[in-house]
Write a structure and sequence with these properties.
single chain; 172 residues; alpha+beta; Rieske Iron-sulfur Protein; 2 domains; four-stranded antiparallel sheet; 10 strands; elongated
Amino acid sequence: MTKKNTETTDPARRDFLGTFTMAVAGGGVAAACVPFVSSMNPSSDVLERATVEIDLSGIPMGQEKTFPWQGKPVFVVHRTSAEIAEMGASPGGKEPVPDSQRVQKPEWLVVIGVCTHLGCVPNKTAQGWLCPCHGSVYDNSGRIISGPAPQNLHLPPYHFVSNDKILIGKSS
């Protein structure tokens, strides 16, 4: 007489082993995916440049300084009272926006220094900026006055941390 081995024919045991094997395989696949998903996160050097704190006390009135932010130049201008009055009275050019909507404090203009036509960096002039490539002219509020550029100079997200410091970029 032969004795039947119940260990190999027990359906409950077979179901348990199948479920356990699938759970371990699923955990293995999830663990293998972690490095791939992590590689899509920004690197530490990119995160360091996500925000830039700028000390405004080193920019004299009537002067401009350029700061790098996310690989782009940002123009920070300490405007004179004459420039503020002139820009407040001007409606703008091709894309009219009041000066008060382009600044948080009238004496400080913060714009991304990239021409909206082909991505050149405009040069500062007494009247604003001139793009040397195709002749686009921007006023002292960063609004397009003439030339092929379709839009005003873009505004970066920024806020005043104190009276003499701004933080460019989104803070978390």
